[in-house]
Amino acid sequence: xxxxxxxxxxxxxxxxxxxxxxxxxxxxxxxxxxxxxxxxxxxxxxxxxxxxxxxxxxxxxxxxxxxxxxxxxxxxxxxxxxxxxxxxxxxxxxxxxxxxxxxxxxxxxxxxxxxxxxxxxxxxxxxxxxxxxxxxxxxxxxxxxxxxxxxxxxxxxxxxxxxxxxxxxxxxxxxxxxxxxxxxxxxxxxxxxxxxxxxxxxxxxxxxxxxxxxxxxxxxxxxxxxxxxxxxxxxxxxxxxxxxxxxxxxxxxxxxxxxxxxxxxxxxxxxxxxxxxxxxxxxxxxxxxxxxxxxxxxxxxxxxxxxxxxxxxxxxxxxxxxxxxxxxxxxxxxxxxxxxxxxxxxxxxxxxxxxxxxxxxxxxxxxxxxxxxxxxxxxxxxxxxxxxxxxxxxxxxxxxxxxxxxxxxxxxxxxxxxxxxxxxxxxxxxxxxxxxxxxxxxxxxxxxxxxxxxxxxxxxxxxxxxxxxxxxxxxxxxxxxxxxxxxxxxxxxxxxxxxxxxxx
Length: 504
Ligand SMILES: *[C@@H]1O[C@H](CO)[C@@H](O)[C@H](O)[C@H]1NC(C)=O
Ligand SMILES: *[C@@H]1O[C@H](CO)[C@@H](O)[C@H](O)[C@H]1NC(C)=O
Ligand SMILES: *[C@@H]1O[C@H](CO)[C@@H](O)[C@H](O)[C@H]1NC(C)=O
Ligand SMILES: *[C@@H]1O[C@H](CO)[C@@H](O)[C@H](O)[C@H]1NC(C)=O
Ligand SMILES: *[C@@H]1O[C@H](CO)[C@@H](O)[C@H](O)[C@H]1NC(C)=O
Ligand SMILES: *[C@@H]1O[C@H](CO)[C@@H](O)[C@H](O)[C@H]1NC(C)=O
Ligand SMILES: *[C@@H]1O[C@H](CO)[C@@H](O)[C@H](O)[C@H]1NC(C)=O
Hints:
Blueprint lengths: L1 H8 L2 H8 L15 E9 L2 E8 L7 E5 L7 E4 L3 E2 L7 E7 L7 E6 L7 E4 L10 E5 L3 E2 L14 H4 L12 H8 L6 E5 L2 E2 L14 H20 L3 E5 L13 H5 L9 H7 L14 H13 L6 E5 L2 E5 L29 H11 L8 E5 L15 H13 L4 E4 L5 E4 L2 E2 L2 E2 L11 E5 L18 E5 L4 E7 L4 E8 L5 E8 L10
Parallel strand pairs: 9-11, 10-12, 11-13, 15-16, 16-17, 17-21
Antiparallel strand pairs: 1-2, 2-6, 3-4, 3-7, 5-6, 7-8, 9-23, 14-15, 18-21, 18-22, 19-20, 23-24, 24-25
The structure holds 2-acetamido-2-deoxy-beta-D-glucopyranose (NAG) (7 copies).
């Protein structure tokens, strides 16, 4: 199949005929047209711009500035990469020296590009309140993905230009409708659900193309959000392979270029950051942060800071003992490792230990698979808990953000399934949420059996979470129904944050 594909690449007409089976977006006549735009926090005062094109770019460039009509600065790179079965090249350019918390305008250099804008990152230590939206397990909308009944004003859907207004992608629509209410997006894992192509019978004979078609469509649908908001990504199980719980026969047709997190790695590898240099006055913290930057392996594990928060992104799929997606792992997804043995955990410890809470009082860890969930033991990752939970407790992580289970859940502060006696009033243990109910072809997961640490669980309609960092001591956590914007659950975590370096 792979050699057939390579043969067809030189024959555009035939390639289009083959592609017709899969529901590909049309290739723009101008092959330099930017598609699938995505932005990320790339460092202090730095933002990376990622986008795909239907041709390789010798020198991807972006013009930018603080006035839409005067884009006086230019940044370029030579980063234009692809893999065997992709129709597109992933381009990345990093914009540096940005003034913090400032609206910038940017235009990707092409004979067919428009001006877009973003808010640059807040400086670590800026104590201005802000909100982050959390979306996990977000799939493609439409024939190869999921659909829902209309439940909102169709006119408002027009605010999401790249999504067919008839398609009612409720979570992306809500992110567009609430544009001024949040500053950036956290998405730890499961994008598009391209590996679920075989659930649509029409794709049966053309999985290789269906997989790519779903990725192109999804990232076009996401571009109105990810091209205007800093959008932080880490891996989930659906990035691993051509098939998620598919059959051996399907696996045999999966070309190497679609295994082992290839699209995710090519797409986000240059887009995501490593770890920030510490702005702490403490030398131990500076050395630790430098060490974390060396050990980081973006887009799999890395960290960043934004105003009052330090966020550490972990990879719950590979690179720790008994990791589920590794060869011989419990998920049969045959991916990774992406670092040397022990590298991810060494990163996590160096990173968490270096967080100066007088600069960034809030410390979050975000990953894909949870170890607290309702719905029985099949929903929790015991190997993840064994690897990560002791470090989260030791360094006083405030909140763990996870998905994988397709619903919304909130947990009381907890460690090793023992509840913190202080509850939400200055606990020593981390609290956790699951925000996996945003919508995908697999549908919602029922709430199922309860656990004692659960405080809220919802699986009736698509939903996502928002985190509002109100001040150094109060974090407001809300779950939002995507279709209506109704607040489903609201809670506030209070932390005194009196210790500069937590090590308990
Ligand atoms: C220019 O880009 C727009 C989308 O941004 C696309 O719809 C259009 O087809 C492109 N034009 C050409 C000539 O490729
Ligand atoms: C989207 O919404 C419109 C109007 O609200 C409705 O008629 C249509 O069936 C919906 N489309 C899908 C795919 O659910
Ligand atoms: C991709 O194709 C090239 C030849 O075009 C081949 O050398 C390479 O091994 C392939 N890579 C994968 C990962 O299949
Ligand atoms: C620096 O931070 C470390 C913990 O990372 C702590 O042990 C040490 O006392 C701090 N040094 C100063 C001068 O505060
Ligand atoms: C996946 O990719 C990584 C990094 O490129 C490589 O080290 C690893 O061996 C690959 N794993 C598999 C199962 O091919
Ligand atoms: C926290 O949980 C870990 C298991 O993940 C356990 O080893 C450790 O003893 C617990 N710490 C406290 C203080 O309960
Ligand atoms: C699970 O049980 C806890 C405590 O017993 C309760 O507070 C919580 O509401 C329950 N969760 C659900 C979804 O019923």
